């Protein structure tokens, strides 16, 4: 289904309460900047908790807690490599949703829409003052 398929309500597929609930829980897991950042980092490959903490500019215990939540939700998987635990995102759909979201948001936090010189870039309606990631 492409974006034009959503223009007509008749074209929308039926969804169940279970699907709505699962989708809402998935978005809830991705709703914190740190967890979203971890998924973004893991889109590039496997990392251990220390590397993720360093790249996310956070401490190891905090990253471990976020990874535990993401694992429990089935968003992140882990495998043992010697003494290290390596984390990854296996679901290409999760990676596609996150990549699509970031392709729609410019680095300054405004919505990246088609260029229109008549309008200034706009921030999402739900935008708040910039908050540190972590």
Task: Give a description of the structure.
Strand 1 (77-81) and strand 2 form a beta hairpin. The chain has a two-stranded antiparallel ribbon. It is mostly helical and 134 residues long. The longest helix is centred in the N-terminal third of the chain and has 13 residues, at 17-29. The relative contact order is 0.13. The two termini are 35 Å apart. 42% of the residues lie in helices and 7% in strands. The radius of gyration is 17 Å and the shape is globular.
- What's the overall average pLDDT, rounded? 86
The succession of helices and strands, N to C, reads HHHHEEH
Number of helices: 5
Number of separate strands: 2
Give the % helix. 40-55%
Trace the largest sheet across and list its strands: 1-2
Contiguous low-pLDDT stretches (5 residues minimum) are none
Terminal-residue CA separation? 35 Å
The general outline is: globular
Structural class: mainly alpha
The largest sheet is: 2 strands, antiparallel
Rg, please?
17 Å
Indicate the proportion of strand residues: 5-15%
